[in-house]
Amino acid sequence: MVRGRISRLSVRDVRFPTSLGGHGSDAMHTDPDYSAAYVVIETDAEDGIKGCGITFTLGKGTEVVVCAVNALAHHVLNKDLKDIVGDFRGFYRQLTSDGQLRWIGPEKGVVHLATAAVLNAVWDLWAKQEGKPVWKLLVDMDPRTLVSCIDFRYITDVLTEEDALEILQKGQVGKKEREKQMLAQGYPAYTTSCAWLGYSDDTLKQLCAQALKDGWTRFKVKVGADLQDDMRRCQIIRDMIGPEKTLSLFLQMMDANQRWDVPEAVEWMSKLAKFKPLWIEEPTSPDDILGHATISKCHNRVIFKQLLQAKALQFLQIDSCRLGSVNENLSVLLMAKKFEIPVCPHAGGVGLCELVQHLIIFDYISVSASLENRVCEYVDHLHEHFKYPVMIQRASYMPPKDPGYSTEMKEESVKKHQYPDGEVWKKLLPAQEN
């Protein structure tokens, strides 16, 4: 039962020095320190349950997101949780339509990252109070209630409330069987952990060999900095995972992280096509709709709508923090279903795997009802800092069973990595200055 008035919202800047080992490095982000703006909301309810939410960042700039969260806090404080979830669409629009803050958005950039952190905390709190993981909360929800969580502004030319309701009602057929399947087998995943751009060839080979031993059959390679280097690294991966005849089992993806101009992307990928990648991810600016269509991750449902309309996507990657939490992701999942485009979520970072597993498991059970050409990213970094980390078995995400959104971090980890006063940064910052 939903209960309590929100009495406190806190946000902390938590950073992990992943750049020291080259973890997370790609063509555009060569020295990322995986970080998060970590939000905790508390209520006056006697149960003491807290809602925890994050948004993912890369180090510098996290303090800006923290400021944005604090600027949004007045929309949350002193509100009854029951009133928020009872009119979730209205609450979402209140956060995204602040008459002054939307000037530095709207629904994109720092403000939208902050909005996601706040909303992620609200969903975590709601699910914990209901005693269910978020995916189960969504699966058990009446289709009309699900639709009431979505803001359809700017997308009704593609997806109306009636369209969404029809898709969700059709998804009721066979839902129990698909839920049993997920609980038994999990959702298929691919790994990005082996081939960060900053890794040496020896490290790449070592990690790829271990991943194959652990049962991984799908790998993503970071590309885009140097063509000859890309071709060498892709050849290493291709040689290790097998020749063309095994592509039905062993798949390779590529990710350029927005590095190329459109003609450059076309030329570059014509050279890399020999390695038979399943897809090329973020080949150019995420805002270049027609560029993506020519080449044939986004920050809001409107961009996704246009990419789908322009037939610029063959695979769609949702993100738990770039988009406005569950609410906006619901609209994108439904649009993807309408256009019959497979959803293959972006994950990794700090807590992105923990978050997105809920969305993609819900998608299969209640929306897409298909695993064809569908797979979810997994990165084996920083899960040890979460109270309810992801569970991977047989290279698949196993549905979480603990109540909430899997976003609660261990307090000792937060204190240790809080920037700039945590133990880790007190040691590192003086050394970096020297």
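Above is the first protein from milestone M3; the second protein from the same milestone is given next.
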Amino acid sequence: MAGDSWAFMPSVLIVEILSYLSQSDRLNASSVCIRWRSCLFQSKLWRTLSLNLHRSNKERTNFLTDICGRFARKCAVTFNPHNIDEVKTCMNVLDVLAININLQVFELKPSSCHFQWTEFPELRFIDRLENVIQSCRRLKHISLGCSEDLQAHSNALFESLASRHSVSLEALHIASVKEDSENYGIIDLKVDLFQNFSCLKHLSIDFDFVDSRLLAAFCKNGKPGLEKLVIHVHGIEPDHEIIPNSLWQQFTSYNKNVKVTLNLMHSIAGVQKLVDILKPDLPLQHYRQFFCTQLSTAAIGLMGNQYSRTLKSVHIVDGMEFGFPAWYNISTNEDPFVMLAWKCPHLSRLTLIGYEVADEDIVAIARLRSDSLESLDIPDACIRWETSHDTHIIGGVQPEFTDKVSESLGRRWRPLEDSQLPQAVWDSWADAEEAYSHILLSDQAYSHTA
């Protein structure tokens, strides 16, 4: 290289080098010289645009949006919907994306299911979203980020998607979080339009819309079939259709690789109706419930009996009133989670927070699953153990117990400490979203297999 100067390197090589760097490293590399900086904003290098709209990133966000927002193929926007400035910035991002005809993947990642609309009416935000949908030529993936406010207007967005992107859309995430599961409106979502989508593989949707019409829309020949169905359960209307097992059987015959994730948030009705929801041919892979105030051991037992071939994880989090875990009633001599560990050989992750668990049952679970149990999260504050004087104590487990669990799992194991638990476990007035929003958003994240 003449004069050993980086400035004389061919631009095609500079772009190739930059393509191997992360987004932040590319920006740093652009300071090498003017030539390198001129190569920085080749469209090849900015197919993925990840924006965090926190005020500390404002200059960087505005710069990347203005330069790259017009040609990026994937854009993910993380923001606080309670912050007016961040909502305004998000709307500006949408304005730029609305002139990007090459956008294929769009993810909203709000930190809450509710927006602050004081200065910016929600319809203005929805209009901008619809402009993005209408402008791009081949949208493959879209996520509304579990927002209840956006989902309330998703009917219009859904119709635009069905009209504009029915042959390209592979992942659609319109499931929401309803913090008040007993008081919310249900939109008239035209579920029959799902039959228009010819290559949809991933779908996140509220249980309110899961009925025979929805499943029938995916029982069509000539489609690749759903692979991932994520269902959010909140309230359940008294007249909500109970889907017969025969329809789930038909559904899985057309969608042979489909796996179901069931998420219950603040859903007392969901727990009470869970046995009715869990049909034998519903291919349950992940079950989660957050702050539902009760636990159905009958449903846990049903999972063990029906989903031995599919169930991979169970994640249950509830609050502890006055700092004490709740009891769960069992109708047999065996703990339902021990039986689950015994009957489900693919169970690799178990979280149980807010309910009292006997130390011997935890040891039994660890022995049954051994090193195949990748994650076992149970708080010390929820573990019941017996002293040498036949006295039962909650919390403060002894090293002998943790050594037994560690030996069975083949790795060092410790129960969760109080400081590791979400604040809402201890304080019923705390924001519960921090306990589950990151998990629910991960369900809606783009993957190359989508």
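Note on the second protein: The first helix runs from residue 11 to 19.
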